[in-house]
Amino acid sequence: MTDSLSAGFLAVDDLDRFPPELSGGVVAIGNFDGVHRGHRRVLETALEAARARGVPAFAMTFEPHPRSVFNPDKPVFRLTPPAQKARVIAATGLDGLLSVPFTRDFAGIEAEAFVDRILQDRLGIVHAVTGYDFHFGRARRGTPDFLREAGEADGFGVTIVAAETDEGAEAISSSRIRAALADGDVALANALLGYRWSVEAEVRHGDKRGRDLGYPTANLALAPETDLAHGIYAVRVEVDGVWHDGVASHGRRPTFDNGAPLFEVHLFDFAGDLYGTTIRVMLAAYIRGEARFDSAEALIAQMDRDSAEARAALASLVPLGPVDLALNGFPAS
Fold it and tell me: pLDDT higher for 31 or 294?
């Protein structure tokens, strides 16, 4: 799925191509959008169970997000599209990822058939780990208790992981993280994730206005459902495996055209042509909201202040944990 996956990590998106190297393993099952701290408790539990048994550990997830399949007019703001999800899961130490194509037909599989035909016959699992709120099968009949009882009857183990809470004893969820990003609370979103969130897209041609202002930018069109607060961000940018500090603006450019939302990234101390290159932009801090300025000179003065604030924020970055260290280009200590 991506060239940034850990060596030996197996990622497939077809049940018919399930690698024999993962058969007979421990599976962690869930949507895992964001692969946040709560999701990683499920993944870590699966990894511990697998290592204790001397078998592979892998995640089973579903693409596209089931909510987007059942409500296509309101697609879900994805925290981790498929390639990014694979990258984060690989960083947790699991051996592989199976992304099952999710369709209405797949959703109509009876819960018993999901267990018998997929978990046992196709994957050959010895143990399954899910979160407390995972449901599967037609009409969501496959509850955690259903899975536990099926495992007892059919000879495989089942572990159900309770909700993971933050330092304020509030449950960690993808919905909370989406809401934090929509509010510009990058610090909260990153804390709940346990790593710094990023966007990834191809650099496209813009109106070259940033170059005229002394701040050339790489322009990215994010997915329309990306509900990220408009404003200015301190960022780090991965280009061909090399990380650069920078500052980014997400919004409609009210000083000029007030057009469609665009994510514009200025890389500090960088010279080069990025058009057509796919880059990853990690959000380190939210600096301020989007604003309209009366002149280009006033805007440039504010951009100078934003850049200074971004540099200061980036100078003090430390990894939020081992996954952040693996994902986001921190130098080895």
Answer: 31
Residue ranges of domains in the chain: 10-161, 196-327
Rounded distance between C-alpha atoms, residue 240 and residue 121, angstroms: 41
Q: CA-to-CA distance for 134 and 288, rounded, in angstroms?
A: 37
- DSSP 3-state percent helix, strand, coil across the chain (nearest 5): 35, 25, 40
How far apart are alpha carbons 147 and 77 in whole angstroms? 29
d(CA 23, CA 296): 61
Q: CATH top-level class for 10-161?
A: alpha beta
Q: Is 202 a catalytic residue?
A: no
* pLDDT tens track for 181-231: 999 999 999 999 999 999 999 999 876 666 657 788 999 999 999 999 999
Q: Contact 282/233 with Cβ under 8 angstroms?
A: no
Nearest Cα neighbor of 11 from 68, 71, 86 is: 86
Nearest Cα to Cα of residue 196 among 87, 75, 96, 62: 87
- Do 134 and 97 contact (CB within 8 A), yes or no? no
List Cβ<8 Å contacts ≥24 apart for 257-264: 261/222, 261/230, 262/206, 262/219, 262/220, 262/221, 263/199, 263/201, 263/219, 263/220, 263/221, 263/222, 263/228, 264/206, 264/210, 264/217, 264/218, 264/219, 264/220
Q: What's the pTM value of the predicted model, to 2 decimals?
A: 0.93
Q: Phi-psi category of 258—alpha, beta or left, where left has phi over 0 and alpha has psi -120 to 50?
A: left
Of the residues 264, 290, 297, 309, only one is catalytic, namely 264
Tokens of 314: 């980036």
- Report, at the CATH architecture level, how domain 196-327 is classified: Beta Barrel (2.40)
Q: How far is CA 108 from CA 62, 114, 136, 169, 286, in A?
A: 14, 10, 9, 36, 42
